[in-house]
Structure prediction request, 331 residues.
Amino acid sequence: MRTTLSFRTGACLTLTTLFAASTAFGQTTPTAPPPMAFEVASIKPSPPLDQAKLLAGQLHLGMSVTGTRVEFGYTPLMQLICTAYKVKPFQVNGPSWMNSTMFDISAKLPDGATKDQVPEMLQALLADRFKMTLRRENKEHSEYALTVAKGGAKLKSADPERAPADPAAEAQAKPGENTANTPDGPMYVSVGKDGSQHIRGPGTLMTTAMSNGMLHLEATRITMKFLVQLISQFAGTPVIDKTELTGSYKLSLDFSMEELMAMARANGAMTGSSSGGPPPAPGSTPVVAAPEPSSTSIFAMVQQFGLKLAPQKVPEDFLIVDRIEKTPTEN
Prediction:
């Protein structure tokens, strides 16, 4: 997200002078309107995940807006910042605990407000209740472009009969499913008694299960958009889809526990005290540089599908969190 603020002085000096002369008496300096804010908002630390509710599909994760009611369930502070400023996690530099400090928020929209104004109101909430201050910085960032390798893609198209018969009904949670709202849309997750996870979303249907220290992922339908998200998690840096592949595909993958731990470390889930070291100071979290393609098996994974990851550097806007309180002020 790139935002440039500029103030330009017009050349209409004569008009400005005439206007000033005609309004010299009783003139007041116009002030900017106050930022949009929630009418009321309750913020509570999220309790530990309830296994029974998880299995019953009674958990709500992420943001939802129903009428004038805005809810955030089991949402890390990092994701609240990303939602407020419409950025990805890699664009936010701050203390590592923002990734693991979860909150439940219930808020009410003021009269006339719309869902599109929620990010602006969330900015005001973060500044007021978490005393957050930040600044923007533009700098070069490493990322990957996912492209089709020489010789063409080797992905298998999803079976047509596995496509949803009613796309509108498919876009809603079913009994036993938990809703996980992501920046790219809702995903629906159910958990089997054996611990397997069944994940459903736009163009995506897959199952993950642990066995013998390995995570097996079986996708009967997966879009490139979701595959890129998955690759980004394991690469530890953003991946941009440049394959121009628009269909749904089927594939299976296996990840070792070492690879899963590496993914957690790359995404900030095992930093600070959880990894045995001190947490970084606010604003000091480094930008993750793209690793060499030979340094992780994620590159070998994409190669088997006739794809490749090419490192590239692009200018990117970052949010530097200079101050943020771990505990919000009272409701």
The longest helix spans residues 118-129. The CA atoms of residues 135 and 320 lie 5 Å apart.
